[in-house]
Amino acid sequence: MDVGCSNCYDTSNTDRPNSFLECDRLLATNGPPKQRYRPKRYLIVSDLAKQLWCEQQLLYGFSPEIYLSRALPDSKVDIDETDEQKATRRKGADIHLAREQDINKPVPVEIITREDDWAVRLLNLQFAVLSFHNGSKVAREVPIFGMPFGIDDVIYGIVDELQYDPDTHAIVISELKTRRSNFPPKKSQQDKDLYQVSLYAQLFNELVQGKVNKHLLNTHLQLDLDAEFSDGVRERLKESGSDALTLSQLFDIVLSQVQSLTCIEFTNLEYILQEDNSTILEVKLNYDPENIKAKVLNQVRWWKGERGTVGVDVEDCWKCSFCRFSELCEWRQKINPKVSESNLEGGSNGVSQNCESSKVMSEQVKLEGGSNGEPQNCESSKVTSEQVKLEGGSNGEP
User: Fold this and answer.
1) What string of DSSP letters covers 129-169?
2) Cα separation of 102 and 114, whole Å?
3) What pLDDT digit, counting tens, does each position of 238-271 carry?
4) Is the whole-model pTM more than 0.85?
């Protein structure tokens, strides 16, 4: 794939030369990020949140061999998370799972085909919608999907929590982030998390507005809409009162039911302390799609291989202090020398004295296995092992 230099970087930033990074040359040879890292034909919300934090870090997380190839022969480079970091991640996952199981009981469902898998996702979405109509005020771990802002890609995610007001029919989307430290997160961390919850809101609203249809989705997902479900899924559908036998029928039913709800106007972001679940900070925001539209469109270009990888800006160099890939990072050393120079002044370990000195990383959320290198006291750990309401199907986040 040959991508002209004019497409590689934002030329409005004179600190960023219009040239390929070596990692981008490898991508150009072996296929764009979406083809390499998301072969299931859709993108994931939490990937895009990580991308906002640091696109270079996201790439190294997907392909650590690209990072390790920069090391000197016979040198030892450690990019594994510590036992403490693993424990922090598991604690966050346990908190989220416990919250979900407060209102949802596991129902095992045998999954055989990709069509079965998507049927389970639709059933979990339907469960949330019908629970509101039946008097519930909270639904958790709700799968949503769509092609926001008219992009030519499907994006999938799982909403942490939807809160429903039966009097006004208003719906608020809420995202929980757990933290090891009692200190509030930095603004960059809040911006990333607000972006994540805002993208969820956009996906949900487009479902409510009827902008998502099965044929458009299927163009990208390449499912057999008319294939009959396996026995386990058919049995569960009967138990839920549905006579749908195919994805085509189930899409029609569930998408119509979602349109009975109202669009989200407000989002909520809550940070709690892992030790005792006490609230550290709560951020409420009026949702405005214009706040994220340009970011989404620009990020999708990277996934398609239409532009090169871009790391952090100079003012966000403090993030490098928490990144497991900072030592050999190509962006720091070659494309943005101001970051490397300022950090190297801090000492031989390459950590700036102006940045936070403890170099830790933690794992981002929603069933994704790679660490994103964000500080653990600024990171949520939201991992669900499977869809709990209807276990057995992948929730789309590896």
Assistant:
1) HHHHHTT--EEEEEEEEE-GGG-SSEEEEEEEEEEE-TTT-
2) 29
3) 998 999 999 999 999 999 999 999 999 999 999 9
4) no
